[in-house]
Amino acid sequence: MQAYQLLINGKLVDGRTTRGIVNPATEEVFAQCPQADEALLDQAVASARNAFPGWSGRPLSERAGMLQRLADALEARRDDIALVLTQEQGKPLEDAKGEITGTAGYIRYIATLDLAPKVLKENASERIVQHRAPLGVVGAITPWNMPLILLAIKLAPGLLAGNTMIVKPAPTTPLTTLLVGELCAAIFPPGVVNTIADDNELGAVMTRHPDIAKIAFTGSTETGRKVMASAADTLKRLTLELGGNDAALVLDDNDPDAVAGHLLRGATLNCGQVCLAIKRAYVPEALYDAVCDALAQRAGAMVIGDGQDPSTQMGPIQNRAQYEKVKGYLDIAKRDGHVIAGGELPEGPGYFVPPTIVRDIDDSSLLVSEEQFGPILPVLVYRDVEDALARINDSHWGLGGTVWGRDLERAYALAQRFESGTVWVNRHLNLQAEIPFSGAKQSGIGTEYGQEGLEEFTQRKVINVQLEA
Ligand code: NAD
User: Fold this and answer.
1) Helical H runs in 9-37?
2) Radius of gyration for the chain, computed over Cα atoms and rounded to the nearest angstrom
3) Ligand 1: which residue has its CA nearest to atom 10?
4) Which ligand 1 atom sits nearest the alpha carbon of residue 399?
């Protein structure tokens, strides 16, 4: 078995104990992960604190150069890290490679940004300049669905801005983050990047730690609330990227089969375990049967299996707890609607759930009102598009959404009325490094991606000079 280590103060170290990491396609332990405890976390925070003056004092261009080297190192090891990503997360190997390429690309983009001072006012008597200062030690806490890209969108801007970092992955997908730690050990000065791994107990310790200035968190809304409460005592800066229950609004000028293809992909990518996945679809009465039939036919043809098998289109659910949750949603689907594809679990091993299409279901079902985070798509009928929009917006979530229609003006006007942070028209999951991303309502606070995402890792500092007495 490959050995994994934590990165603390520039050294790759063993944890206090180890914990077996399960491959969700086989349910077998395939690696041992070192576990930190509170004392090791404290060591990591102390080393990040010590490293902060030196790191933040370097020119931004030097920090950018090291980030470029990290992107090079990731690309050089793309294939072996992708294999570990597939083994720990379950996604098809090609998707794992794509996540690593996207991660490296994002890091490269961040390395091109600047935080130049901005002159706010200048005249004969005064000069007022806004600077962007780093915050100090930043904690990055990530979930298990996209361990690498969700790490990069915290690590790269955090480091470029001059912060030092403590990184904590989810307990079920820690290994690829520890591999990134290995790469960082060879590039960054000691203490600048620290990686720890836990059994779900150290996130809470990080959020109340007096020497951590900011928490950049991606995870569920439920945990996000705890992070916010726990960070209150130290008034930490927070970025919270949380859950979603994104709706797809299908307009009546669509080709049913083509739109069904888009909906199915949006609902089953990464086995539905994407914050921005299509989690409910609203289809006009005139197209309802045709879209449902096309969805069922396409879902039935999808190949599910071990992500290491090149023919696999969709892997398993990532962990047992989520698998049990998704099984509960299958029961709800059968109770509240008509299952027209999938619905039955294959014989084990592996946490496999087939792509499942559910029709004749209404908004009151928990499958529609909650975040299923699995490959089960409820398809709802509407008569009046205004009514559909009201039903879509009647949610405490507001992450993303999609509108599908040939009349772009009409689609755009409806997109503007979605109460969410991102709305795509006739495409989905088009995330670009330079385009800011944030959740509305209880889907999050703050922004990732783009210059705005970088600035979230800084404190605005205004220097106001009197030039003449
Ligand atoms: P989770 O909230 O259970 O865990 C996320 C991380 O928080 C893990 O590292 C976990 O160990 C840690 N954690 C657990 N308890 C904590 C606490 N009290 N304080 C601080 N940290 C704690 O989320 P998950 O189940 O791993 O991920 C799935 C969720 O993430 C879904 O809701 C999904 O929509 C959301 N997500 C959101 C985005 C986004 O950008 N908005 C992206 C991906 C996933």
Assistant:
1) none
2) 23
3) 170
4) 41
pLDDT on residue 468: 81
- Active-site residue identified among 241, 371, 448, 456: 241
> What is the β-pairing status of strands 6-8 and 247-250?
unpaired
Cα-to-centroid distance, 103 and ligand 1 (Å): 19
Q: Supply φ then ψ for residue 465, to 5 degrees.
A: -115, 130
Q: Is 275 one of the catalytic residues?
A: yes
Residue 241 bears catalytic tag: yes
200 lines ligand 1 (CB under 6 A): yes
Question: Mind listing the pLDDT tens digit for each residue in 415-457?
Answer: 999 999 999 999 999 999 999 999 999 999 999 999 999 999 9
pLDDT at 469: 67
Its sign, for the CA torsion 369, 373, 374, 380, is: positive
> pLDDT digits over 25-76, tens only?
999 999 999 999 999 999 999 999 999 999 999 999 999 999 999 999 999 9
Determine which one of 33, 184, 271, 275 is catalytic. 275
Cα 240–Cα 322–Cα 5 angle in degrees, nearest 5: 70
| Contact residues for 89 (Cβ-Cβ < 8 A; gap 6+) | 24, 96, 144, 145, 147, 173, 176, 307, 315, 318
Question: Is the shortest distance between the CB of 73 and ligand 1 below 6 Å?
Answer: no
d(CA 136, CA 458): 9
Interval between CA 224 and ligand 1 midpoint (Å): 7
- Write the DSSP string, 81-93: HHHHHHHHH---H
**Comparing C-alpha atoms, which of 310, 303, 320 is closest to residue 83?**
310
Strand intervals (E) in 328-416: 338-341, 356-359, 376-382, 397-398, 401-404
Q: Which amino acid is at 306?
A: D
217-265 pLDDT tens trace: 999 999 999 999 999 999 999 999 999 999 999 999 999 999 999 999 9
Q: Using the 8-state DSSP alphabet, how is residue 314 labeled?
A: B
